[in-house]
Amino acid sequence: MVRSRILCLVGVALGHAILFLPARAEEGFGGAPPPVAVAARQYVNVGRKLPLLGMDQVEKELKITAEQREAIAASQKKLREDIGGLQPPSVLDEMSDEERKERVAKLEEKRKELVGAAEKEIEGILKPEQSKRLSEIALQLGGVEALKEKGYAETLKLSKEQLGKIDEAVTWGRDEERKLFQARRNGGGKGPDREAVAKTLEKQKQIRKEVETKVLGTMKDSQRKEYQRMKGVPFKLVPMAGAARVGSGGMAAGPKPKEGPGFGGGAAPPEKAEPKEDL
Question: Could you identify which of 186, 214, 222, 254 might form a hypothetical disulfide with 32, taking C-beta atoms 3.0 to 4.6 angstroms apart as the criterion?
Answer without folding.
Answer: 254
